[in-house]
Design brief:
With 132 residues, the protein is an all-alpha fold. It has seven helices and no strands.
Protein backbone atom coordinates (compact mmCIF):
# COMPACT_ATOMS: atom_id res chain seq x y z
CA UNK A 1 0.00 0.00 0.00
CA UNK A 2 1.07 3.53 -0.70
CA UNK A 3 2.15 5.60 2.26
CA UNK A 4 2.74 8.81 0.29
CA UNK A 5 0.22 11.40 1.48
CA UNK A 6 1.49 14.42 -0.46
CA UNK A 7 -1.56 16.62 -0.98
CA UNK A 8 -2.98 16.33 -4.46
CA UNK A 9 -0.37 13.86 -5.77
CA UNK A 10 -2.90 11.11 -6.38
CA UNK A 11 -5.49 13.37 -8.00
CA UNK A 12 -2.81 14.98 -10.15
CA UNK A 13 -1.72 11.56 -11.45
CA UNK A 14 -5.34 10.53 -12.11
CA UNK A 15 -5.97 13.74 -14.09
CA UNK A 16 -2.71 13.30 -16.03
CA UNK A 17 -3.44 9.69 -16.95
CA UNK A 18 -7.01 10.49 -18.00
CA UNK A 19 -5.88 13.45 -20.11
CA UNK A 20 -3.17 11.41 -21.87
CA UNK A 21 -5.42 8.48 -22.67
CA UNK A 22 -8.89 9.99 -22.82
CA UNK A 23 -10.11 7.46 -20.26
CA UNK A 24 -9.32 6.20 -16.76
CA UNK A 25 -10.55 2.73 -15.82
CA UNK A 26 -11.83 2.42 -12.24
CA UNK A 27 -9.20 -0.24 -11.53
CA UNK A 28 -6.41 2.22 -12.35
CA UNK A 29 -7.97 4.87 -10.09
CA UNK A 30 -8.06 2.25 -7.34
CA UNK A 31 -4.39 1.48 -7.88
CA UNK A 32 -3.41 5.16 -7.84
CA UNK A 33 -5.22 5.50 -4.51
CA UNK A 34 -3.48 2.41 -3.11
CA UNK A 35 -0.03 2.45 -4.73
CA UNK A 36 0.79 5.76 -6.35
CA UNK A 37 4.45 4.89 -6.88
CA UNK A 38 3.54 1.76 -8.84
CA UNK A 39 1.11 3.67 -11.04
CA UNK A 40 3.64 6.45 -11.66
CA UNK A 41 6.04 3.77 -12.91
CA UNK A 42 3.29 2.19 -15.03
CA UNK A 43 2.39 5.60 -16.47
CA UNK A 44 6.02 6.24 -17.41
CA UNK A 45 6.19 2.85 -19.17
CA UNK A 46 2.89 3.55 -20.94
CA UNK A 47 4.25 6.86 -22.22
CA UNK A 48 7.47 5.23 -23.43
CA UNK A 49 5.52 2.53 -25.26
CA UNK A 50 2.56 4.44 -26.70
CA UNK A 51 3.58 8.09 -27.05
CA UNK A 52 5.40 9.43 -30.10
CA UNK A 53 8.61 7.48 -30.56
CA UNK A 54 11.83 8.38 -32.33
CA UNK A 55 10.46 7.15 -35.65
CA UNK A 56 6.94 5.85 -35.03
CA UNK A 57 4.17 8.34 -34.20
CA UNK A 58 1.74 7.56 -31.39
CA UNK A 59 -1.21 6.92 -33.71
CA UNK A 60 0.71 4.09 -35.40
CA UNK A 61 1.71 2.67 -32.03
CA UNK A 62 -2.00 2.65 -31.20
CA UNK A 63 -2.65 0.56 -34.32
CA UNK A 64 -0.21 -2.04 -33.01
CA UNK A 65 -1.93 -2.02 -29.61
CA UNK A 66 -5.32 -2.40 -31.31
CA UNK A 67 -4.14 -5.47 -33.22
CA UNK A 68 -2.61 -7.16 -30.19
CA UNK A 69 -5.59 -6.39 -27.96
CA UNK A 70 -8.00 -7.64 -30.64
CA UNK A 71 -6.04 -10.88 -30.91
CA UNK A 72 -6.34 -11.26 -27.14
CA UNK A 73 -10.10 -10.65 -27.32
CA UNK A 74 -9.97 -7.47 -25.25
CA UNK A 75 -12.94 -5.72 -26.83
CA UNK A 76 -13.19 -2.79 -24.40
CA UNK A 77 -9.46 -2.12 -24.58
CA UNK A 78 -9.64 -2.20 -28.39
CA UNK A 79 -12.50 0.30 -28.25
CA UNK A 80 -10.50 2.65 -25.99
CA UNK A 81 -7.39 2.44 -28.18
CA UNK A 82 -9.42 3.11 -31.33
CA UNK A 83 -10.80 6.24 -29.69
CA UNK A 84 -7.29 7.26 -28.67
CA UNK A 85 -5.91 6.69 -32.17
CA UNK A 86 -8.63 8.95 -33.56
CA UNK A 87 -7.87 11.58 -30.90
CA UNK A 88 -4.22 11.41 -31.95
CA UNK A 89 -5.15 12.27 -35.52
CA UNK A 90 -5.70 8.90 -37.16
CA UNK A 91 -8.34 8.93 -39.85
CA UNK A 92 -11.23 6.49 -39.79
CA UNK A 93 -9.81 4.89 -42.93
CA UNK A 94 -6.40 4.41 -41.28
CA UNK A 95 -8.06 2.74 -38.29
CA UNK A 96 -10.15 0.54 -40.58
CA UNK A 97 -7.04 -0.42 -42.57
CA UNK A 98 -5.28 -1.36 -39.31
CA UNK A 99 -8.28 -3.47 -38.34
CA UNK A 100 -8.29 -5.22 -41.73
CA UNK A 101 -4.62 -6.06 -41.18
CA UNK A 102 -5.55 -8.19 -38.14
CA UNK A 103 -7.44 -10.79 -40.19
CA UNK A 104 -4.44 -12.69 -41.58
CA UNK A 105 -2.10 -12.90 -38.56
CA UNK A 106 -4.87 -12.81 -35.94
CA UNK A 107 -7.72 -14.59 -37.64
CA UNK A 108 -11.37 -13.77 -38.05
CA UNK A 109 -12.03 -13.62 -34.27
CA UNK A 110 -9.46 -10.82 -33.81
CA UNK A 111 -10.84 -9.02 -36.86
CA UNK A 112 -14.36 -9.36 -35.45
CA UNK A 113 -13.38 -7.96 -32.05
CA UNK A 114 -11.68 -4.95 -33.62
CA UNK A 115 -14.43 -4.33 -36.16
CA UNK A 116 -17.14 -4.47 -33.47
CA UNK A 117 -15.20 -1.93 -31.40
CA UNK A 118 -14.80 0.32 -34.45
CA UNK A 119 -18.52 0.08 -35.19
CA UNK A 120 -19.28 1.04 -31.57
CA UNK A 121 -17.13 4.17 -31.93
CA UNK A 122 -18.87 4.98 -35.24
CA UNK A 123 -22.31 4.58 -33.66
CA UNK A 124 -21.41 6.82 -30.73
CA UNK A 125 -20.09 9.47 -33.11
CA UNK A 126 -23.34 9.35 -35.11
CA UNK A 127 -25.34 9.95 -31.92
CA UNK A 128 -23.14 12.90 -30.97
CA UNK A 129 -23.46 14.45 -34.44
CA UNK A 130 -27.23 13.91 -34.36
CA UNK A 131 -27.50 15.89 -31.11
CA UNK A 132 -25.31 18.78 -32.26
Amino acid sequence: MDSDDKPGKKQKLIRKMKKERGYMPPAWTYMVENDTDFMEAYDALYEMALADGKALPAKFREFIAIGILAFRGQDNAVYLHIKRALQLGATRQEVLDAIKTTIVPGGVPAFGVALAAFMKVEEEDKKVRKHE
